[in-house]
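I am writing to request your help with a piece of structural work I have in hand. The matter concerns a single protein, recorded as an amino acid sequence and a row of backbone structure tokens. Could you please explain, in whatever detail you think fit, how the structure tokens follow from the sequence? Thank you for your consideration; the sequence and its tokens are set out here:
>
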Amino acid sequence: MAVTLTLRTDADGRVVSTLNGEALAVTPRDALPALVRLQADPYNLGKALFAALGGDALRQRLKADGEALLLLDCDAETDKIAWEFAALTELKYRRPAGASLLVTRYGVLRLLDATTPPAPNHPLIHFIALGADPLVDKDGNPREKNRLGIENELRGIRAALEKSGIALRAWRVPPTKAELNRALRQGAAILHLTCHGDVVNTDHGPEAMLVLEDNDGGEDWLYGSDLVNMPPRGALRFVLLSACRTAQPGDAHLARMLVQSGVPFAIGMQSTFLDKLSEPFAVALYESLLAGYSFAEALRQARLALSEIPAQLGLPVGYTAREGWLPLPRTEGQPQVGALGLPGNLQLPSEVQPPRPLLGRHRELHDLAQLYSRGAKVVTVTGTGGIGKTALAASFAERFAWRWRGGIRTVSFASDIVDADAFRRALLRALRGDVFAQQLADADAETQTRVILETMRDWDGLLLLDNYESVLQSISKNEPDAERKRNGQAAHRLVAQMAEGGAALLLTSREQPAQLSGEVVYPKSDRPLTGLQREAGVALFFQHSSKAKDRATELLPLARDIADATGGHPLAIALLAGEFDNSDAAPKDFLENWPDELANAERQGLAPHHWTFAAAFERSYNRLTADEQKRLRALSVFGFPFYAQGAAMVWADDHRRLTADGAVDEERWLTQTREQLGKFTRRNLLEIDGWFEDGTPAAYRFQPALRQEAARRVRDDERAAFAEGYAAYADWFVGMAREGIRREPAVARRAQQAASELIAQVNAQPADKLARYCWLL
């Protein structure tokens, strides 16, 4: 059985360590080092703690104990001592670091004489995860620093749970007090909380506090006493507080409070816990726990995952009720872990994806959330090309999808091509699913529109329409193409009907306003989205420059200069980062000609907010060879993600299939094509759209602003040749897609994105291939 050590403070201020009525040690309290000193030198200073626990006499008892478990029964004063940093004296070396601490050799828990109510009878283990990292503080200031790696932590936990072979249901709740309370009412559960934590002074003394979020992503404090009172009795069986100061010595001791209230076992942190350690600690803990080990042994295993940083190793503190450290009751079965991703029902196409991390836009995310909280139904985010409208909207959708019961659905007009029929089909797929959309595929426009509007009236969701300027531009009075105008008018009429019916819409557009019912333009009609602040711009430069990442200190002045010179324009920063990677210029000379380049953009008659992007693109474009420039221009025919075969065909590179003796070498042909495409991606002129299993890019795509810049440079004498290669690629693509759709979701997605363009290519097919093309299509 476990060794239970009683620790009390006598009238003379001495710590008395007693085992079965026998005093093992008596130590002046003032002789024991404080936590901050222990962290600075845990191996040497921790020896005093081990001596105060009983030293050699205690070690002999632990060696003889079958459980290898030490339970510390502390009074209020001795509970303030960081016993988890007690260091064994017999070790003459520290390999690995921290192996000399008592907690890595034995299970060490703090024992409370608390009553544990019985758990509700349920065959599944419920695993509830909540991760909170507010966008703004209580004063509305953006919280850009000290961001938590919540997604990495929960991704690791999900993998650990998934391979456990234990019947459990795991899900992630939105980071609000109300959603946590709702989740805790669903039965016996393990609760994993990862967030910022602190101890604050209140009217009734110091209290532990967890930083959760309100509905808009703002900071919302959950006091420890409120958390203790939140769950029904018996609902919580174990709590891991992956948050700082949740086991800080003193009265504001949240982990201790939870066990005193009836939770059998809880773990908190004595001080500031490094965020990067949260994932390995939690993974080791849950792997051990679900493998059948006791809570005590699982905590010891989790500590071993921290052993390379001894200053952190003693920070986790495990509190247990009597017998609360025993193994978790388990049943073999299939873990249900799919709901551990971000909460909410979300569908985003590949061209509308949030960057990770989203830099410098926390205030804007909070602003958008507040607009909908205040009653807005239609919000249009405006700004110049490449300023980050899509990134902002996608990040908003990912973070706040949980707020809409029906989730968030997305349709993108990034290809610049507005096809009213394709738009209706995309809406039907998004709102009613592929099967229903297929059933209505041949219905007339009026029927499809009626079904869409009826669905929207009953749908509690948000529809994101990206690059809506394509629609607005197609219906402008200057649009010469009658067919394009007709399609644009039909699409816009449908969106206007949805807005009039009270649908929740989020649009991104360079043009504004969309003149929809109840529309709110964000940021404002006369002030579109601006660039990033300097610090975020610097981080973005290092994110996009592979050459600069390992020279951050040396190149910090250059990164700041680029952030300032571009006005924080994200796409301009990315282009200059790519150009820096391919430049031989010294950092001090890299921006030498930038004022002249901006002046040239101004002379082209561009709007001021477009100058920095235009200048950055011009610089990248001018650094290409004449052949590379032509190849980039040719790729502008693709308004949707394309495969390497498409690039080779519009480049008229069929001859590269042949070896010297005239034999076909398809792989050599594609390898050479991918090498050239790689040059463009390294300059951030192209993006990669998915990967094959062998690590090669699956497909490629343009950002709309980059595609338009490349298309603007296409010469009249090139158009026919590009169009011929494009038609050949359409023929290849429908043949490939017809087989691939059945087994490759990514192929199906790209086929849907390209559908209207593939239909438009019917008239471009040679007569001998036309019937087959239409049949495949």
Remarks:
- The two ends are 73 Å apart (CA to CA).
- The first helix runs from residue 35 to 40.
